[in-house]
Amino acid sequence: MFKNYNFKILIFSLLLITMIFFIVLALLYKINYKKNILVEIEINNQNQMNFKINSNLYYEINKNSKILIEQKYAKNNENFYLKIKEIKNIKNDVFNVVLFHSTNLKIKPNTRILGKIILSQKSNIFDFIFH
Question: What keywords sit in the KW lines (predicted)?
Answer without folding.
Answer: Membrane, Transmembrane, Transmembrane helix
